[in-house]
Write the structure tokens for this entry.
Amino acid sequence: SHSVVNALLLLTMELQFPKSSHHSGLRVMLRNPHPKKERHGDCGTRAICLAYDLDYQQVWNRATRNKRAGSYYYDQWGQRKQSARSADWGLSKADLIMTLKDFGLDVVYKSLTKYRNKDKSTWLYFNQDNLPKTCIAHVPSHWVAVRDGAIWDTYDSRGKRPRKLRGYVCLRQDVLPNH
């Protein structure tokens, strides 16, 4: 009976990891949700999967559909053609948010580039103190999943020097109060 109580206590406890010595305060969890472990410009798709525990192929399919919506070109005969763009080479902010909303998540994007910095002298940096516990951080040219005090990515995208934080996408209820 005593061991059962201890087991239940362990199940309800949150995982605790040692504090990171990195300047961002975040640890690294190297993960690649791609079914074939391929690495290409699919950081938006990977970040959605890793932050919110969603299936890669389902996310990729919806993200690709969102990226193609309203995107077309004209061929050499002047015929309008549907774009063949896919989620493989990056997602815009709008595509990423629409994809998350397709999964029923009430998400918002919090821009931090206009954070009391009219002269751009004060940037918020990619640091755990500037991010909700679970979110998709928007750093220059990259989306990265942040969960439980760690980045979840295929490589260490924290950077050797502090990186500017453009913003983040999170559930509406998780927006930090000072943002």
Observations:
- The chain has a mean pLDDT of 85.
